[in-house]
Amino acid sequence: xxxxxxxxxxxxxxxxxxxxxxxxxxxxxxxxxxxxxxxxxxxxxxxxxxxxxxxxxxxxxxxxxxxxxxxxxxxxxxxxxxxxxxxxxxxxxxxxxxxxxxxxxxxxxxxxxxxxxxxxxxxxxxxxxxxxxxxxxxxxxxxxxxxxxxxxxxxxxxxxxxxxxxxxxxxxxxxxxxxxxxxxxxxxxxxxxxxxxxxxxxxxxxxxxxxxxxxxxxxxxxxxxxxxxxxxxxxxxxxxxxxxxxxxxxxxxxxxxxxxxxxxxxxxxxxxxxxxxxxxxxxxxxxxxxxxxxxxxxxx
Length: 300
Ligand SMILES: NC(=O)C1=CN([C@@H]2O[C@H](COP(=O)(O)OP(=O)(O)OC[C@H]3O[C@@H](n4cnc5c(N)ncnc54)[C@H](O)[C@@H]3O)[C@@H](O)[C@H]2O)C=CC1
Ligand SMILES: O=C(O)C(=O)Cc1ccc(O)cc1
Description:
CATH superfamily of the largest domain: NAD(P)-binding Rossmann-like Domain
CATH class of the largest domain: Alpha Beta
CATH topology of the largest domain: Rossmann fold
Number of helices: 12
Bound molecules: 1,4-dihydronicotinamide adenine dinucleotide, 3-(4-hydroxy-phenyl)pyruvic acid
């Protein structure tokens, strides 16, 4: 049982963490800290947090666990605000979609107190944002990747893992570097492709006509283009190197495909489609086995 948790950024991810822990009866008091009073007050109205705090000092007093759940470029400003009031018994974690730069920032800001920072990333989410989108079962059966640091104590890592397990999540561990390379390929690139495709179509002079006839294939491919622009700006810039690597590989793939199409090489095209179809079917089967409640409309 956690006596007090503090959430910086009570949106989809922070709010769902709060709702899940409350539903599990795993926490006594939930304090929210926000960028704007309005969002925080809404989170309180919705019953997600008990206290909408305007004082970091007060918020951190006696806290067992602090979760950073704001866009990743906010990490520095939030950790700087925390550091003077961070007591020895408090563990800090985060939910950011990238880990390398978060860890670098945390080391620079926290200094000796880096021992208390256990980085994490829930692999569950939606294209919706804000406290209204928060749901208690977002993490049920989903992975949470922790990227513990050599300086972390086993007890602090266990505390963070247990909190996510109380939310129904399954704990995995990666190094920050492996984490960022993996998610550049299977999360960051797909989001950026979806944004780029919708932007491209929206900028065409006959966009209205095109959108009028866009159907379920378009909806499936582009659902994630409804995600937060600020969050994806921060992820892109923070994981620039790994994303550029994946983008270059994808551009090369498109260039190969373009040449096949231009040459009318149906055999080569069909071979690529068949390989992708098989891989997609295998992935779908494995994810349905591992996450039986998997929904087609979102990673929830
Ligand atoms: N949306 C998703 O599907 C997933 C997001 N993440 C990560 O979780 C984090 C939060 O994402 P969401 O909950 O989706 O975003 P969100 O937009 O729903 O919530 C973020 C909240 O942080 C607040 N905020 C911004 N700056 C702040 C600051 N300096 N101090 C305190 N609060 C601040 C915003 O007002 C907002 O309420 C991001 O780092 C993102 O990379 C991780 C997994 C999935
Ligand atoms: O909406 C979806 O399907 C997602 O893929 C959500 C998501 C977004 C960012 C993450 O770091 C993890 C999960």
